[in-house]
Amino acid sequence: EDSCHSEKNLNAxxxxxxxxxxxxxxxxxxxxxxxxxVQGTKSNIVSKAEDGRCVTFCIxxxxxxxxxxxxxxxxxxxxxxxxxxxxxxIDDPNVASDEELVLYVARHGVPSFDEWYSGAFGDGxxxxxxxxxxxxxxxxxxxxxxxxxxxRETVVVIHLLKKSCMANMKxxxxxxxxxxxxxxxxIGNGLVIPPFALDLYAHVxxxxxxx
Length: 211
What we know:
The protein is mainly β. 15% of the residues lie in helices and 38% in strands. It has helices at 67-74, 113-121, 128-134, 166-172, and strands at residues 17-18, 24-30, 43-49, 54-60, 79-90, 101-110, 136-144, 153-162, 193-209. Strands 2-4-3-9-6-8-7-5 form an eight-stranded antiparallel beta barrel. Strand 7 (136-144) and strand 8 form a beta hairpin. The longest helix has 9 residues, at 113-121.
């Protein structure tokens, strides 16, 4: 039996839910033994990238109380991306507490957020079978600042998935060969516009949620 397909996943709801407050998120990578003081966040995930760096993914409340904390990370030389959460989704709330998880982050250009979102997610859902195959635990879809090179809008997709399913995700996101990001040729059709400024896998070591 494929470890990504479990009885617990059969009722997975792959519905993207609009963010009510467009919370700010920050992803930063720093030294292997470093970690940010992430007080003031709504949630954060600390993980280890394949190159040994410590990667921190923080979501901040929309209130001004977290501005100092955001600034401390934003000023760091190792900031990878900052933006606003537009949608999120919980696919498998019943994932085992001892399940090894991986954080996957991708950032790329789009013709516009609305056009890309409509083409990629249609009615705001991923097929449950696909969510199961990828072992998705949670997904965030976000906007990020325009690319300096071509003034193109960019999006960031962040997946929390089962480590046992990482090979499936890597196959799906092999941008240089079919299926070109999951089925339709999104690159050829202009929905996904290279280059990919971020294509990162990191093994989760700590999760904290305060919401």
